[in-house]
Amino acid sequence: MSKWLAMALLLSFSQANAQIEKEKNVKAFEFLSNADSKKAGKALEFKKGAVVSAHPEATAVGVEILKKGGNAVDATVAVKFALAVVYPNAGNIGGGGFLIYRSAKGELNSMDFREKAPALASKDMYLDANGDAISEKSKEGHLAAGVPGTVAGMVALHQKYGRLKWAELVEPAYQLATKGFKITKQQANELNRLQNKFKQFNPLGTVFIKQEVEWAAGDLLVQTELANTLKLIRDKGRAGFYEGEVANFIVEEMKRGGGLISKEDLKNYQAAWRTPIIGSYRGYKIITMPPTSSGGIALVQLLQSVEAFPLSKWGHNADSTVQVMVEAERRVYADRAKHLGDPDFWKVPQKELLQEAYNKGRMANFNWNKATPSSEVQAGEFARKESEETTHFSVVDKDGNAISLTTTINTSYGNYVVVKGAGFLLNNEMDDFSVKPGVPNYFGLVGYEANAIAPNKRMLSSMTPTILEKDGKLAMVVGTPGGSTIITSVFQTIVNVIDFGMDMQKAVNAKKFHHQWLPDRTDIEPDALTPEVQQKLEAKGYTFYKRSSIGRVDAILVTKKGIYQTGADPRGDDTAGGW
Ligand code: GLY
C-alpha cells in the first residue's frame, strides 16, 4: 500500500470515527440537556410531535417512528415494545394497562388491556385454613400472575388506528433485545437490590441474575430469549404470544411454580375497547379512563370536589389548598374502595359517582378547623337500579393525534418470575384484587365485594391515562405510575397547570402529597410543604408521612401557539423527545 493511500485511509477512518463520536455525543448531549432541563424545571418544546417516556431509548424509538411518518398509535406500539426491553421492571409484555386515544379530528376512545384472573382463580385463593390472608402469595411468585394483556392490546390498537406496518413497529424492540442496551444507574441499583428475589423465583436462571460482580451503570443488558419472543410477536402478531412456543413456555413456567395460567386463558384473552369517562374542570374537558380502572372516575370526582374553591388565590401547596385537596381525596378513595370493580362483573354506579352535586355535597361536611377522621368518612350510598411499579408515556404526532398510555406488571419487576425460554417477567397483578374484604393490598388500598376475585375478572386499577381538551382542541396528555398515588398525582399535575399556571415541566417537578382514606395520613414528598404549612395543618389534626417520591409523571402540554411542551419526570430516567 502506498504511503498516500495509507494516509487517505487513515484520514477517512478517523473522519468516520469522529462522525460516530459526534453522533454519540449528540445523543448523549440530548439526554444530558434533557436531564438538565428536567432538574431546572425547564420544559422542552417541539413542533411536529413529542414522546415522553420512562427511558431514553424508548423515547428515541418513538421519535424515530414519528419522523418516519408513523402516527401517534404507531409510535405508541413501538415505545411499548421498546419499554418491554429497556424498562423490564414495568414496561413489560407480561403485564397489561390502559390507554386513552384522541384523534386529530377529536374522535375519543379508550382501551382496557388489563390482566385477567385465570379461569382457575377463586375468591379465597389467598386465604389460609383460618380464613386469614397469606399476603405474599398475591404479591410474589407464580400464583400472583394474571393473564397478560399487553400484546393483545397493542395488536388491537394497531389494527384499528395504526398506519405503518406492524413488523416495523416491533423491530426496534427486537434490535434492542438482541444487541443490548446500557442500563442506567437506577436500574443497576434496583437489579442489585432484587438479586435474592430473582434467584428464589428463577431456579433455572435468568438474564437479570449476576453471580459474581454487581450490576453497574453502563453495563450492557442483552436479552436473547426476549428477542426470540419479540421476533415471534413481530412475525405472527397476537398468535406469536398467546399461542405456540411462547404460550407453551408460559404454561410450563406455571407448572414449575404452581401458577394457574392455562393455554385456554391465553388463547381467550381479549383487550376491551371502552367508552372514556368525560368530565370538566374550569373550562377544560377531561377525557379519562373508565373502569376497570378506578382512575378516571376518581380523578373527575376530585376535580369536581375542589372546583368551587379558589385554589389559585390560595397558592400552590398553601395550607388551605392542601386541606381542601386532602379532604376531597379522603372521600373519593372511600368511594373507590366500595364501589369500583371490573364493570363486566360488577355494576359500578358510574353516573352517580360522577354527578357534580354528589361530589360537592360530599365536601359540605368538612370542617376548616379540624381534619375529618377517615373513620367518620364512608363511601356514598346509592339506590341500586337492579336488584406502584407501573409506567406511563404520552405521545402526540404532527397531526395532533394523541395517546396517553399507562402500563404495569404491578410492583417493580412484578412477581419476579422470568418466563424461562421467553425471557419476560410476569405480573403480580392479582394483588390488586381485594384478597379479603378490608385487607389492604401492597399499596395499602382496601376493597370489598366489587373487587373480589372471580375467574376471568379484571382486578381494579388506579391507572389514570388522561387527555384534556380546551375549546375543542387538544390541550394536555398526562399520566403516571405510582399505584394508589397515580390518581392524586394526575390530579395535582392538572391543578398545577390550570390553577397555578405552571408550564409542563414545572407542573411535573412540583412536590406532591397524597391521601387515600385509609391509612388516615397524608403522604408528602420532601419539601412538599413549608414547615409553617405543615405545622398549621398538624394543629388541625392532620398527620404526615414522609415518602422519598410520589409519582413519575410524563406529560405533554399544547401551548397557545400549538407547540408541544413536554414534562419528563426528574424522579426517574424519564426522557422527552420530539422534532
Ligand atoms: N397495579 C397498580 C394499579 O393498577 O393501580
Automatic annotation (TrEMBL):
Its EC number is 2.3.2.2, 3.4.19.13. The active site is at T390. GO terms for biological process: glutathione biosynthetic process; glutathione catabolic process. One of its GO terms (molecular function) is leukotriene C4 gamma-glutamyl transferase activity. It holds the Pfam family G_glu_transpept. Keywords: Acyltransferase, Glutathione biosynthesis, Hydrolase, Signal, Transferase, Zymogen. Residues 1-18 form the signal peptide. The keyword Metal-binding does not apply. It catalyses: glutathione + H2O = L-cysteinylglycine + L-glutamate; an S-substituted glutathione + H2O = an S-substituted L-cysteinylglycine + L-glutamate; an N-terminal (5-L-glutamyl)-[peptide] + an alpha-amino acid = 5-L-glutamyl amino acid + an N-terminal L-alpha-aminoacyl-[peptide]. Pathway: Sulfur metabolism; glutathione metabolism. Cleaved by autocatalysis into a large and a small subunit. InterPro entries: GGT_bact (IPR051792), GGT_lsub (IPR043138), GGT_peptidase (IPR000101), GGT_ssub_C (IPR043137), Ntn_hydrolases_N (IPR029055). L-glutamate binds at R114, T408, I409, N410, D432, S461, S462, G483. Coiled coil: none annotated. Belongs to the gamma-glutamyltransferase family. NCBIfam families: g_glut_trans. This enzyme consists of two polypeptide chains, which are synthesized in precursor form from a single polypeptide. This is Glutathione hydrolase proenzyme.
